[in-house]
Write a structure and sequence with these properties.
Helix 3 packs parallel to helix 4 and helix 7 crosses helix 10. It is built from 13 helices and 7 strands. The longest helix is centred in the middle third of the chain and has 23 residues. Strand 3, helix 3 and strand 4 form a beta-alpha-beta unit. 49% of the residues lie in helices and 12% in strands.
């Protein structure tokens, strides 16, 4: 069934390459990139968008609204739009919120979970929750990726998986700090428990279902991002522990900024989240501040 699909990949970065690897022999692929690199020749968006049965937004969340609004009138009525973006845009919105504004509910879904692009392109296993409230969409997307090495678990909790995968990038930072400071495996166990406890409460308050963070988009992706030496956010945590601030950029850092800017939830209710935010804002004496955090929690 998947061979009948025309799939348009938007963005030819790491995840664009990973999706190409998974799908190149299974469907008709079209690839567009606004700023093509090297020898890659991007196709013309206006020419290929009308052909697409499925559009994969392999892009950061910031350009989602602009591109979605641009192609909306070009797409087939039953075209499926999927995002893998794990961040907030400059208005503090998730990819799901943007898609909800632009498309009808049966036109979009989300793919979130442990999907390190290098491992996908190396032929290793990857996993994702497919967020959608439309069973026909879910069936088509599962068919598209069947037997590719990307294992998909459906979820109707779009809000829950969105905030789980976004906030896990914030919590992943402190794991990198702890590893850089050689604070041990026992602390990693505590951080895992504390992060999931806070995540579950935040997600519920943001409108998600209780327990959603304990699945692939939350716990699964947190473990991957927080413990992999190839993880960008793990490396950012290491840099923060060393007091190196010149390269502190990423989805987790931007999420911290947007949550504060738009007061998306009360961060003072979450001690570990608050600690991470304070360290990102002022990365000094990180080991002492982690110790102080533990004393406060267990007093």
């Amino acid at each position: 069934m998947s061979e009948q699909f025309t799939v348009l990949i938007l963005g030819y970065g790491e995840m664009g390459h990973a999706m190409e690897y998974l799908l190149k022999d299974r469907c008709r692929l079209r690839i567009w990139d606004k700023f093509p690199q090297g020898d890659f020749q991007s196709e013309v968006l206006e020419d290929i968008a009308p052909e697409a049965d499925i559009v994969l937004f392999c892009l950061p969340v910031n350009p989602h609204r602009e591109i979605a609004e641009k192609i909306r009138s070009m797409l087939k009525k039953d075209c499926i739009n999927l995002s893998i973006a794990k961040g907030l845009d400059e208005a503090g919105q998730t990819a799901a919120q943007i898609f909800s504004d632009v498309f009808s509910s049966n036109q979009y879904g989300l793919l979130y979970g442990p999907m390190i692009s290098e491992e996908i392109r190396d032929g290793r296993y990857s996993f994702a929750q497919l967020g959608s409230t439309n069973s026909n969409l879910t069936s088509k997307v599962c068919s598209l990726f069947q037997d590719t090495g990307l294992y998909i678990e459906p979820s109707t909790d779009i809000t829950g998986i969105s905030w789980s995968v976004i906030l896990k990038n914030v919590y992943a930072l402190v794991f990198g700090m702890a590893d850089e400071l050689k604070l041990g495996d026992n602390l990693r166990g505590y951080l895992s428990m504390a992060a999931l406890r806070e995540l579950d409460d935040i997600v519920h308050k943001m409108g998600g279902e209780v327990g959603t963070p304990y699945n692939l988009a939350g716990l699964g992706d947190l473990i991957t991002t927080a413990t992999s030496e190839d993880s960008h956010h793990h490396e950012l945590g290491r840099l923060l522990a060393r007091g190196e601030t010149e390269s502190i950029q990423g989805e987790g850092v931007h999420t911290l900024e947007m949550v504060t800017k738009f007061s998306l939830f009360n961060t003072n209710d979450y001690p570990l989240y608050k600690l991470i935010r304070q360290i990102v804002e002022n990365p000094q004496n990180v080991a002492d501040r982690i110790q102080q955090h533990l004393r406060q929690v267990y007093t």
